């Protein structure tokens, strides 16, 4: 098998100036996945002639998108020069907004994080945009990066962007985010090309690129914390749905209370029963003095039967939601994340047992995410770097559709 077949890259075309630019774009894309690489290696990978590749690398180096990193040793005769993308030719800003923390990161064009900063989410919505600007400016100043060098800014938050009205919907745990005018204010303060994406979708991209989802074409990332959400990777791609609401499992009905004779007219939503507040409410009804869901899991690990009963009920609730999802998506893997999901080791045995009992189809593999609290930022960087690399070429007057 030829090396170039291993890369899913833009088609390499041939022709005059427009095609030359297309070839340079394709070479740059190959270099991103192979770096450091020599001109002969890139010629083999792209199928272009060595003369074409050498000329393209020289031009990309002159334009500041590629740099030499040395020579490859160990071969007889003249050693070929090695090339790599110029990492600091542009930068990406990633922002993750949660109920308690706003997390920020800056990455270069290779996706390497060069700055990180977290600050508390302000209590007053009037401080929200200013707090984000504080975080971004502090990170850029630390790296001595100008605003002009930021080629993409990705904002991850609960809810879904209503593109027609440029406002967020379905963010009940941070209702201030749904305020009209908030997203336009962010665009004005940060970047007109600000990209807004659901936080769980971003966490799913982070899991796909950096976590347990690598190489898994069909998996779901189930986040359980302040809220509940699902990110879906189907056939290797993030599935958003027609309006961006795919994975908004918070609105599913909760599992019925054991032994109840409800007429089905009213039932609380899945999120109310299975998210952190629901766990705490269960624990307090059982007489446990706890301030948050983490304390319930600590008590369960210590053997407290009331806490263990809460964990058992949480596993039943999550299984109920998953039983609605698995027959439709048929994922190979379910990754648990979020503040509660990261305590999933206690939950997983019961979840597997419930699903095996309820479903006459194979139960997927289960695992607890290893990306921790940075999952959303990691996904935002994945998305941002893709956009920034395109923009780096567009700034040169290049077309990137070849």
UniProtKB/TrEMBL annotation:
<dbReference type="InterPro" id="IPR000600">
    <property type="entry name" value="ROK"/>
</dbReference>
<protein>
    <submittedName>
        <fullName>Putative NBD/HSP70 family sugar kinase</fullName>
    </submittedName>
</protein>
<dbReference type="GO" id="GO:0016301">
    <property type="term" value="F:kinase activity"/>
</dbReference>
<dbReference type="InterPro" id="IPR043129">
    <property type="entry name" value="ATPase_NBD"/>
</dbReference>
<keyword id="KW-0418">Kinase</keyword>
<dbReference type="InterPro" id="IPR036388">
    <property type="entry name" value="WH-like_DNA-bd_sf"/>
</dbReference>
<keyword id="KW-0808">Transferase</keyword>
<comment type="similarity">
    <text>Belongs to the ROK (NagC/XylR) family.</text>
</comment>
<dbReference type="InterPro" id="IPR036390">
    <property type="entry name" value="WH_DNA-bd_sf"/>
</dbReference>
<dbReference type="Pfam" id="PF00480">
    <property type="entry name" value="ROK"/>
</dbReference>
């Amino acid at each position: 098998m030829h090396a170039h077949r291993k890369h899913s890259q833009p088609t390499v075309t041939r022709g005059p100036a427009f095609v030359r630019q297309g070839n340079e774009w394709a070479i740059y894309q190959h270099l991103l996945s192979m770096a450091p690489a020599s001109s002969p290696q890139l010629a083999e990978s792209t199928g272009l002639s060595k003369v074409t590749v050498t000329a393209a690398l020289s031009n990309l180096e002159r334009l500041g998108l590629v740099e030499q990193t040395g020579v490859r040793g160990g071969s007889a005769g003249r050693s070929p020069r090695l090339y790599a993308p110029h990492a600091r030719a542009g930068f990406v800003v990633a922002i993750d907004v949660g109920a308690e923390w706003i997390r920020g990161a800056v990455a270069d064009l290779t996706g390497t994080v060069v700055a990180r900063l977290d600050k508390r989410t302000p209590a007053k919505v009037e401080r929200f945009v200013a707090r984000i600007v504080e975080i971004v400016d502090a990170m850029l100043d630390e790296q001595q990066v100008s605003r002009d060098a930021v080629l993409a800014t990705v904002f991850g938050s609960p809810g879904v962007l209503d593109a027609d009205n440029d406002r967020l919907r379905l963010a009940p745990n941070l209702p201030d985010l749904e305020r009209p005018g908030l997203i336009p204010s962010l665009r004005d303060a940060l970047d007109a090309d600000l990209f807004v994406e659901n936080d769980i979708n971003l966490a799913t991209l982070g899991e796909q690129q950096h976590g347990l989802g690598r190489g898994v074409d069909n998996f779901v990332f189930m986040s359980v914390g302040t809220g509940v959400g699902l990110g879906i990777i189907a056939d290797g791609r993030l599935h958003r749905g027609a309006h961006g609401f795919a994975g908004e499992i918070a609105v599913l009905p909760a599992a019925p209370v054991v032994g109840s004779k409800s007429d089905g007219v009213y039932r609380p939503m899945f999120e109310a029963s299975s998210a952190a507040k629901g766990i705490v409410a269960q624990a307090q009804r059982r007489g446990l003095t706890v301030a948050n869901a983490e304390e319930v899991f600590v008590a369960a690990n210590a053997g407290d039967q009331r806490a263990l009963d809460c964990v058992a009920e949480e596993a039943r609730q999550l299984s109920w939601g998953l039983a609605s999802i698995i027959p439709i998506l048929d994922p190979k893997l379910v990754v648990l994340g979020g503040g509660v999901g990261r305590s999933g080791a206690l939950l997983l045995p019961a979840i597997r047992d419930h699903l095996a009992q309820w479903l006459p189809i194979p139960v997927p593999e289960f695992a607890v995410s290893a990306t921790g609290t940075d999952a959303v930022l990691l996904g935002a960087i994945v998305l941002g770097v893709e956009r920034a690399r395109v923009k780096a070429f567009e700034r040169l007057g290049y077309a990137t559709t070849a």
